[in-house]
Amino acid sequence: MVVINNGEVVFEAYKGYSTPNEKVTHSTIFEGASLSKPLFAFFVMRLSEKGLLNLDKPLYQYLPYEDIAYDERYKKMTARMVLSHQTGFPNWRTDSPGDKLFLDFEPGTAFQYSGEGYQYLALVLQHLTKTDAIGLQELFHQEINKPLGLGATQFIQDTENLKNKALAFKNGVWLGPRDFGKAQFGAAYGIHSNARDYANWVIALMNYEGLSEASYKTLFEPQVEMPEDNENRNFGITHMTMGFYTGVFPFGEIYGHGGNNDKKFTSLFFYAPSTKWGMVLFTNAGFGEQMGINFLQFMVTPKQ
Hints:
There is one protein chain. The model has no long low-confidence stretch (mean pLDDT 93). The protein has helices at 36-49, 79-83, 115-128, 133-148, 159-163, 195-206, 213-220, 288-300, and strands at 2-5, 8-12, 17-19, 22-23, 30-33, 169-170, 173-174, 191-193, 224-225, 239-240, 245-249, 252-261, 265-272, 277-283. 38% of the residues are buried. The strands form 4 sheets. It has an 8-stranded antiparallel beta sheet with strand order 2-1-14-13-12-11-10-9, sandwiched between helices. The longest helix is centred in the middle third of the chain and has 16 residues, at 133-148. The chain has a domain at 2-34 and 157-300: Beta-lactamase, CATH 3.40.710. β12 (252-261) and β13 (265-272) form a beta hairpin. By secondary structure, the protein is of the alpha+beta class. It is 29% helix and 19% strand. It contains 8 helices and 14 strands.
């Protein structure tokens, strides 16, 4: 866990175990799960700035998607819709019988959280850059890691990353290393990092580094309102931007995201731009996301 105040790290805590015999340290690597999404959105904005893609051009015009080609509605899908979860895709096709990709509604007409959309956009980027998943990771390294000093943050793990990775602890049982199979750029789920490295990126956001002023405005502009029955409303989150949840709290507007890979790794980050205050939390167990939410609620609850 890392706490940031006035744009600087003011508190760090490394607790518990990364394996049955090793304690968590500052270099322990965790699966960030959906903390991948805002970082991927930042990466997309960087590439959009360089003219690689237009946020509002239908993605099929870059790369037709055979998995959903039977439904012509998908041709309305854009990068902006993907990053703000307005594609109409389910979160994952495997959550439903048949494992077939489908649309629940016409793209651009509603909010529905979807990792599938992010993965389609990653394929589009690979096509546009004439590379594969590993090549896209290298481009991420050149465009984001090197300029912002994110030495440990990877979508596709290297040897050093794997050497320091924590094992998951679920329901009282240590689980072996997760096999991600064939190298895939997990735009929706694949980021691996540690709290301090990810906090460096959050501090870069606070200082508006790495993107132009116009791109930052686009990145943080609310794109869609949370439905009234969405559970994020319970935590004060009202809108989705390009990859970030946002809401107005007593101490100002915040941006952030949670992560949960099957309750094996859970995580959360949020920050307030007006005060440059925020927090990053990674765990290799199932309570991290809720733990971070509890921390946020504690900060906004009036004290007796």
